[in-house]
Specification:
Elements lengths: L2 H30 L6 H8 L3 H41 L7 H14 L4 E2 L5 E2 L3 H4 L5 H15 L4 H4 L1 E4 L2 E4 L7 H4 L2 H21 L5 H4 L17
Antiparallel strand pairs: 1-2, 3-4
Length: about 230
């Protein structure tokens, strides 16, 4: 492919992606005021092909899905795993590292089970019913609850503070190393179990590879290759 041809196709792709982003931003803004605009109406207003717009919108949504399940999810699980491995290596020699590392492991793991915004009106997260074995659900629930109540937010109920003339006493659970030391074996097992289920899910929905996931998008319709302008 000649440089100018590549540059032209690259510009067309950027403009279509920008069109989808513009529509999402417009629709989001309108909904705040109780209004909305359909994709078809947006395309008419902008004089662009509805079918091409739909093709690019579906592509972006699939990109989000593939990236979440095949990249982000594994990356965050591996972060949690690495933090637990570092605890094994250094916690005895450097006790001050215990809580920062367990906090990182908990936040990395639990983030996947909280809804994250996609680019095209979607929310992405791992469903605990699908990805967490029943035998490890108690461990999973504790990790996610402590993430919400102890680490990601400053909920006072979780800390149960008592104030006296000598200071503030915090007696809530999930605040000290002793609350987590016994949890480590189950936490490690949980991470591996979720990773295995992620692989199974990828095979189930045909997203194990880029070629497999995007096979329906390898040949764009002609109208999707026409510059929508900006």
């Amino acid at each position: 492919m000649e440089y100018e041809d590549f540059r032209k196709k690259w510009k067309i792709e950027l403009n279509w992606r920008a069109r989808v982003a513009e529509y999402v931003e417009l629709q989001t803004s309108l909904k705040r005021n109780g209004e909305e605009i359909s994709p078809e109406r947006y395309c008419r207003q902008e004089c662009i092909s509805p079918s091409a717009f739909h093709w690019w919108r579906e592509l972006l949504q699939l990109e989000d899905k593939f990236t979440f399940y095949r990249s982000f999810a594994m990356e965050y699980l591996n972060r949690a795993k690495k933090s637990l491995e570092l605890i094994d290596l250094y916690a005895d020699r450097y006790p001050e590292l215990r809580m920062p590392l367990i906090r990182d492991a908990i936040i990395s793991y639990a983030a996947l089970f909280c809804k994250s915004n996609g680019r095209v009106f979607t929310k992405w997260h791992l469903e605990s019913q699908k990805f967490v074995p029943q035998a490890l659900s108690e461990t999973h629930n504790k990790i996610c609850d402590d993430r919400d109540l102890v680490f990601a937010h400053c909920d006072l109920g979780a800390r149960d503070p008592k104030v006296s003339l000598i200071g503030i006493a915090l007696k809530g659970k999930g605040f000290y190393w002793e609350d987590y030391e016994a949890l480590l074996p189950q936490f490690k097992e949980l991470i591996e179990a979720v990773k295995n289920r992620l692989e199974g899910y990828a095979q189930e929905v045909n997203i194990t590879s880029i070629e497999q996931a995007f096979q329906d998008f390898l040949n764009p319709p002609p109208e999707a290759l026409i510059d929508p302008g900006r």
